[in-house]
Amino acid sequence: MFEIENLHAGYGQMQVLHGVDLHIGAGEIVALLGSNGAGKSTLNNAVSGILRPREGRILFEGKDISGLRSEVIVEMGIIQVPEGRRIFPNLSVRDNLELGSYRRGRARREENLERATETFPRLRERLDQLAGTLSGGEQQMLAIARAMMGEPRLLILDEPSLGLSPLLVEEMFALIQRLNAQGLSIFLVEQNVMQSLEIAHRAYVLENGCIVLSGVAADLLDDPELKKSYLGL
Fold this sequence. Notes:
The protein is 36% helix and 27% strand. It is an alpha/beta fold. A hairpin with a 2-residue loop joins strand 1 and strand 2 (14-24).
């Protein structure tokens, strides 16, 4: 469904990604793990059309999307929930949700709004509330629900557990599993290694702009190199 081949990218004189290869099959949760500065955001920016790759290809359903504009990539069904949520705090919850269907899914906006608020009942109770007054967990729910309004075919989640309490982190990962069970392909970009590996089908570990480990998530849970580097075991 989605493939990155020999991706090189960076900013100005700084090279960040060095020949990254990965793929995502239809219906999979694939995790990209790595610490701050590993290059995860740069990879997301390249996939989303914010950053033009210097070399390599990004393929979606066989079509090369490298260098396409962000809005074109969204129209194809690749939708990202950015790190930090990036909601519009001075707009209502309803307005934030409806903006999610600006480029894709507009014809089924009301139907999708109903589906989103069924998935996130707390948002249904707060549709007319300013988004900036929501709790951190509710804002993360809003960011994901807004993405769902655009009818994603591939959903990119960038650090969805960041800043959440342990209980809300558990809820967030359970939600990701539920969305995947509905057939949605998910690219999960996270620092939370253990919980990501527990729900992902496969995973890649990014370090200094290079993929250093990859494989079936259950196998990586027992990988001694991963335990040493990321879990301190």
